[in-house]
Design brief:
Elements lengths: L1 H30 L16 H13 L4 H14 L3 E9 L2 E10 L8 E7 L10 H19 L7 E6 L13 H11 L4 E7 L14 H6 L6 E7 L3 H14 L3 E7 L10 H4 L5 E5 L21 H16 L9
Parallel strand pairs: 3-4, 3-5, 5-8, 6-7
Antiparallel strand pairs: 1-2, 2-4, 6-8
Length: about 325
Amino acid sequence: MYAIVRSVLRILIAVVVIAMAGLAVLAIALRQPTITSLPFKGAQRADPRSLREHVTFLAADRNNLQRAASYIETQFRAAGGDTSVQTFVARGEQYSNLITRFGPRDPTLPLLIIGAHYDAFGDNLPGADDNGSGTAGLLELARLLGAERIASPIMLVAYSTEEPPFFGSEQMGSAIHASSLAAERRRISGMICLEMIGYYADRQTWPNVLFALVYPGKGDFIGVAGGWEDRKLARFTKRAIAGAGGVRVVSFSGARATSDASDHRNYWAHGWPAVVVTDTGFLRNPHYHTRRDTPETLDYQRMARVVDGVYNAALTFRPLLRNE
């Protein structure tokens, strides 16, 4: 009897060891840990006060998309970018993507795209985090890039029509934009989407036990998520944010269907690598898609460090360009 019990225990121990080893391997695959970070020039560059001002303006009148579009265009032009407006019709109404470019205009050079949507869900809900925070980050990023000599082309895009009823359709602003680049046969080396970057909390929820085991239980981090095909871009972006400092950063690289809930999905459709930078949205923010998603709920200091990190990525992106 003792021999049988001992054999069963050995089997159980072996199963536990194998399971733990498997979980460790899966965690490494999903999180794509990085040892080094990308150096960041100087101290904090993004301005938390400017981020708050942008979010406050955008959250004040969400039903007036033209007001928001005019504000974004004005900010892009003030930053010194080569700015244009891409208009399109969706469900019988006219909408606009706002575009600004930095760096050389040579169309043969691979292009880095950084984008965020400026529309909000629902009837005049404030949408401070979703996605006033991402749009504010894009505007502050434009200001920072406008003061630099950019070595390779960077395009910033503020999209309309991300939210329902447009989400998942060819009438998403980002789908219109991606298709226009494909028609031009532009070489795209990557796309970084800023989707909800402002909410931080003591508690982080996850959709399943696996994620709860692999990822932090405290909502004090920013995430970089994409498909397995996008892991190189995810690791690079994570290293850039880590290099800027001031905010914890983790990443997810898995099935694209598990991280496709924003504008980056429309660049995947053309075979281009794309990732989303996010505070995990509704998994963390209890105010998601409610009237409580207001400017005062956001952490502008951490937002500023996220913007610094994406700025760091934009400045150091050249090593990832294809065919060089």
